[in-house]
Amino acid sequence: MTQLQEAYYQIQIQNRSEQQLENRLLYGFYPDVINQNRKVYFYDNGIRNMIIGNFNQLDLRLDKRALWENFLVSERRKQNFYKNTFSKMYFWRTKQQQEIDFVEENSGNISGFEFKWINKKTKFPQKFMEAYKAKGIVIDRTNFSDVVI
Description:
The protein is of the alpha+beta class. The chain has one domain. It contains six helices and six strands. It has helices at about 5-10, 20-25, 45-50, 65-80, 125-130, 145-149; strands at about 10-15, 40, 90-95, 100-105, 110-115, 135-140. The strands form two sheets. The chain has a four-stranded mixed sheet, sandwiched between helices. Helix 5 links the parallel strand 5 (about 110-115) and strand 6 (about 135-140). The model is unreliable at about 1-30 (pLDDT under 50).
C-alpha cells in the first residue's frame, strides 16, 4: 500500500450534525440548518501537508487556521478515545453561514467549540446556544491544552 493510500484511510469524517443531534432541529424548527455536508479532518497534520504539498513554516502559511482546527479536532478525538469518553462529534452551520467549528455531545450535554488561532472575543450563534442549551468554549493557543490533554 502506498503512503497516499495509507493517508487516505486515516482521514476522519465528521458528519454534519448527525441528524441535527437526534433530529432536534429538523422538521421545521430551523429549516436553515444545513445537514447534508461534511468536514474532513486528518489524524495527522503531516498527512494533510503531504497531500496539499505544503511544508512551509507556519509564519509563511495561509492555512494556519485550517491547520489549527485540524490539530485540535484530531487531538480531541484521540484524547476522548484514550480516556474512553465516547462523545459524539459534529459541526454546525446554517445557510446564513453561522457556524460552530466543533460540537461535542456527551451524556446529553452539548458543548460548542470555536477554534481561534489568535485570541479574540467570540460570540456564539444564539440560535445554536438556545436550541441545544449548549456550553460555548473558545479554544486558542493560550488554553488549548485544557481540551487536548
